[in-house]
Amino acid sequence: MSATPSSKLPPFDPRDPLGLDDLLTDEDRAVRDTVRQWTADRVLPHIAQWYEDGELPGIRELARELGAIGALGMSLTGYGCAGASAVQYGLACLELEAADSGIRSLVSVQGSLAMYAIWRFGSEEHKRQWLPRMAAGEVIGCFGLTEPDHGSDPAGMRTYAKRDGSDWVLNGRKMWITNGSVAGVAVVWAQTDDGIRGFVVPTDTLGFTAPEITHKWSLRASVTSELVLDDVRLPAAAVLPEAKGLRGPLGCLSHARYGIVWGSMGAARTCFETALDYARTREQFGRPIGGFQLTQAKLADMAVELHKGILLAHHLGMRMDAGRLRPEQISFGKLNNVREAIEICRTARTILGANGISLEYPVMRHATNLESVLTYEGTVEMHQLVLGKALTGGLDAFR
User: Fold this and answer.
1) Per its UniProt record, what Pfam families does this chain match (predicted)?
2) Residues 125, 147, 377, 381: which is the catalytic one?
3) pLDDT tens, position by position, 322-343
4) Which of 94, 326, 382, 399 lies 20 to 30 angstroms, CA to CA, from 61?
5) Are 274 and 363 in contact (CB under 8 A)?
6) How many Å apart are CA 130 and CA 135, to the nearest integer?
7) Nearest to 203, CA basis, from 181, 225, 173, 171
8) Considering only CA atoms, which of 92, 98, 62, 17 is closest in space to residue 265?
């Protein structure tokens, strides 16, 4: 078969060099464009100031707007959720994080952690009580797993739930909890006499407090809190009936990590496109710096890793939609894409020179945000060991 004449080929698009847009359906593109337009209208004009101020003002209004476009719990079905495909959810995460990782974290924790836990493991009463309002953004949720002394090893958690008659009484602390101080409901994981269980905790319950964590240099446009549970008394119905042991929270984390595989590429895309535009217009030695070999080498390497990462994310999304995506494959994506996204951001910073550290450009903001994304939902080391165990046929190097 002869090659296609160059006169009939589509033009080369520097922002889509592999033509990955051809992989998307019209519905996929409609979802992507809706979220992209929302971020352009509601986030991008303000995000630099929010980041500099270390706050996310109007978070409840933003949540309701995200609910209105179907972005909250969008891959779940029923109970007011959009029932979107995994690929469409991933595209939404990419567009949200192209604006800011904190905005994507708001959506991920709401939909992939708090809502998913209730949808997957909750009772019918839990689902009817919480999911429609969470999908609409009327109630914000959080997910309490990480503790001050137990991050990568959740099996060692100290938060404890003890039976008292027909009630449960919870005591303990959770740390680094996105949405915590603005949440109306928390999904909290605790040790019990029968192993780890999950609990649906209305945040107005006596003994529950969520002091906000400040002095962050990453994810500054995001609400991060501690959860303090001091004799929090819950009825027997508060327990998630279908979640027993660590498989419950780890299943939720897999769902959230999948969104990160896409989202990290959004941050990388913004930094790459910023560097590309800058290289075309910034002049040194009498011509644009994009005309120098070293700059072109950087741009080429960034483009290769960015679009390989998007291609990987799309492949994993197709596997998830087919019911064939394994947790080890999600670890593969999270490990690769976040690591490469940080490198793309750092390389973009070098192209911008001193301007790269200014909030007039998005590069340093994305680079510092990704330092958190690299750690949460499983550190680099944890995902390396997940893959290592799978590659070696089950040899466990965690302990």
Assistant:
1) Acyl-CoA_dh_1, Acyl-CoA_dh_M, Acyl-CoA_dh_N
2) 377
3) 999 999 999 999 999 999 999 9
4) 94
5) yes
6) 9
7) 181
8) 98
**What domains lie within the chain, and their CATH numbers?**
20-135 (1.10.540.10), 141-244 (2.40.110.10), 248-391 (1.20.140.10)
Pairing of strands 160-164, 195-202: unpaired
Q: Give CA–CA dist 196/142, Å, rounded.
A: 18
Distance in angstroms (rounded) separating the CA atoms of residues 105 and 108 = 5
Q: Do 225 and 180 meet the contact criterion of CB atoms below 8 Å apart?
A: yes
State how far the alpha carbon of 149 is from the alpha carbons of 154, 157, 160, 190, 223, in Å: 9, 8, 14, 14, 21
> Could you tell me which of 100, 97, 135, 90 has the C-alpha nearest to residue 114?
135
Question: Rounded CA gap, 14 and 273, in Å?
Answer: 9
Examine the residue annotation and report whether 360 is marked as an active-site residue of this protein. no
CB under 8 Å to 138, separation ≥6 — which residues? 64, 67
How high is the pLDDT of residue 110?
98
Distance of alpha carbon 297 from alpha carbon 292, whole angstroms: 9
Mean pLDDT, rounded, for 375-392: 94
Q: Which residues partner with 185 through β-bridges?
A: 141, 202
Residues 226-255: pLDDT tens digits?
999 999 999 999 999 999 999 999 999 999
Return the DSSP state at 185: E
Name the nearest CA neighbour of 224 among 255, 182, 267. 182
